[in-house]
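thought: fold this chain, then report.
action: predict
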Amino acid sequence: MPSVLTNKLRIDFNPNHGMKSEAGRWLNAFIATLTNKHLTRCDIAFDIFNRPEVVGYRPWVFGSSKRPYYGRSGDLETLYVGQARSDKQIRQYNKLLEQKKKRSRLEKRLVSETSRLNAMKVDSPDVVLQQQALVAELEYAINDIKTDKYESWWRLELELHTRKISEWDSTVTEVLDAFYKPIWESATSPSLRAQLLVMGTPSMVDDYYASLNGKAREKLRKDMKKADKHTEIAEELKQVFADNKDKLQAQLHGYEAEFELIADDNKTPLEKEPYLSRVEHLMQIEKD
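observation:
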């Protein structure tokens, strides 16, 4: 049965978008009337452009659940590490493919809405103007999706909740430390070389790892930590993160001030005042 919270309110929104619109101004005014407000979610994303080799990288956070999703071709499209309700969830996905699918949906709708516009009677000018505005909006949205600029575009995204928000710096570093591709050629044992090759192959790794028993998994984890790794992309992302760390901290403080949020501390959620609002904040770092 779903639980019902009394005298509590959760608001999901992204303060980077739409806050200057009429609806955004209304939301700002409404949030201002609330008390005991806390930031309970923070998303930090790395966009990785034109580095197709990143598909072999993974956040090797052992002990967390992993849910991979593959396309019809067998290629990895999205990987979730960790549960959605946990303090931290990692998502690695093919952003370029997502944008292409989005563009395709918008183009199909544009054809439909343009046909409706052409069939409208000119004696209903208000309706025609509304439809023209919708068509123009769709055209703008389609042109805004730049899928032709990139050979590949992957996103590594961290979704942090409650206590992990105050630990965002160390959490990001921890995830990037675990973001690598095993170098199977470096192993001296033929069996380990075969295992590392499988673990570095996106279409094979999940089924193989799931087939191992507990002792075999433990041994493989130890071997992977000792083995040589491709970490070039992770090191570049660490540098991008270091270059933007002060900016991200300023953004967080800015939102705390703007929405009069109670700053996070070392208490657990149960020891704090009830959460009356939830603000989703996307901090994006791009790597060209």
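thought: worth noting. The two ends are 47 Å apart (CA to CA).
final: tokens above.
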